[in-house]
Amino acid sequence: EELGYLESHLGYYVKEIGMEDRKELAPDQIIDINYHDFIKSPLMQVKNIYHQLNFDMTIENENAIEHYLSKDQINSKSSHQYSLTEFGLDETIIKEQFRDYMLNYDF
Question: 78 falls in which pLDDT band (50, 70, 90)?
Answer without folding.
Answer: low
